[in-house]
User: Fold this.
Amino acid sequence: MMLRWLRWPNLILVFFTLAFIRYGLLGNWFRQYNLHFVLNTFDFLMLCLLTMMVTFSGYVINDLYDLETDKQNRPDKVIIGTLVSPGQARAIYLILVFLGMGINLYLAYQYNKMIWSWIYPLAILLLWLYSYRLKASVIWGNLLVSVFCAAVALLVPFAEKEPIQQLPDGHDLLFTLYFYAFFAGVSNMLREIIKDAEDRVGDQATGKITLAVKFGEKSSGAWSRSLLIILSVSIAIFFILMEYSTFAMVLFGACTIPWMILIAIGLLKNPARIQWAKLSQYAKLLMVGGLLGLLFLV
Assistant:
């Protein structure tokens, strides 16, 4: 149960996203032109730890504010109030925040990039605002979380900005990174919309005004189909502009398109009969598939 509270698959996905972008994508380009990373290995691991701590602290504060809703939607998965008291959860949250601030200041000082020191508190503030207010709103909470998801993909390029600027074809690398960040953000937005539809009953009972609560499951289905179209068009445009090999395109498609098709088929049903929980799993696998597909674009 405690491992479930950690959402350990999500934390592992965050770590592998950062590690692959550094060692797979950037590392491949840097080796070709004999460039070196700005962050050493230890400090990169500190960045990974910091990102995972921000992610987990977001889960903790969200669970604290979402306690009554979770009792309605997922009574068998509620940790706070069963294995962990609300007071203990708040203490864990504060410990994570202060430890994270220490790592954040260390990295900013180590590389004389004090502007970095503002990113962490801003992230913590926005995640608190999401849990406190925006999650119960139409679209804005979903959008904020999706922007965070996209931003994770750009953390390493942001830290490695100087050597990237020295690459002769750095714009191709940046375009690939921006595409993946866009893909991650939109696919997460898709999952957020689907999850809101899945949680509609509990959200409505606790006064949350999400898209599904305010406009119904039919609207959630329409938004989900629109996001699938946006993803499909963006993938097509990316491969047309970048001129990757047919082999790379097929492999990326094999990692992502089946999940998009399954979601699209699931959305064809009458809104009242759509299995939103199953579609939520497909959307998560789509996000994982996007990262795996990136392996073939190195």
Remarks:
- The first helix runs from residue 2 to 6.
